[in-house]
């Protein structure tokens, strides 16, 4: 799956999100399943992959140092869990939850990696997001800026070999939706109706608004490179780290 194909899968997930309840996992089945299938194809038959959208359509559970954790994509070799991938696709209210997203990412990564397992992260952000109040009214529109992701730039400079809270690799993928009239779209219902009526013509693109000096632990807007690197990392480390022949 290349970057353009990845954008198409994100679009499919977004449309399912618009059609379903916010708590539905159907949007995850589309996105997680496509990524998991891509990874499984590139790793080969000797590896197992568990995720929504593949095989038995169930996520796997990985034993961390402190607790067992359900992971979005679980990778195994000879029935031994070796790596996990966490995926977050943010649709709205980013500023309200951004610190929680970040802290949760650090915590789950530390839990898994300190138990001698590899962990990777994918964060997908639209560059322009609605911010709803508890009644579903859009009270403002948020734009993702370099300031919003400054903590990820700091994280990208951490030495993953030294700090277990740092994912081995993180993909930060920022996308651009077709512009809509912010003055006329004032509620969650209107937002969904607007994009559903144009679903066949939604042209998602990779954002070019964000720039920064990212360290080696993070990849910006390049799904292909991210997947290639984690595939190489897993195969290179399977014998050294996990004792496989």
Task: Give the topology, please.
Layout: H1 3-19, H2 26-43, E1 47-51, E2 60-63, E3 68-71, E4 73-77, E5 80-89, H3 94-113, E6 118-126, E7 128-132, E8 138-143, H4 150-156, E9 170-176, H5 188-196, E10 205-206, E11 218-220, H6 223-242
Parallel strand pairs: 5-6, 6-9, 9-11
Antiparallel strand pairs: 1-4, 2-3, 4-5, 7-8, 9-10
Helix pairs in contact: 1-2
Walkthrough of the structure:
- With 245 residues, the protein is an alpha/beta fold.
- The protein contains six helices and eleven strands.
- The strands form three sheets. Strands 1, 4, 5, 6, 9, 10 and 11 form a seven-stranded mixed sheet that branches. Strands 2-3 form a two-stranded antiparallel ribbon.
- Strand 4 and strand 5 form a beta hairpin.
- Helix 1 runs antiparallel to helix 2.
- The radius of gyration is 18 Å and the shape is globular.
- The two termini are 29 Å apart.
Pick out its properties.
245 residues, alpha/beta, globular
Number of extended strands? 11
Let me know the largest β-sheet.
7 strands, mixed
Number of helices: 6
Oligomer: single chain
Which band does the percent of strand residues land in? 15-25%
Task: Give the helix/strand class.
Answer: alpha/beta
Radius of gyration, taken over Cα atoms and rounded to an integer in Å:
18 Å
Percentage of residues in helical conformation: 25-40%
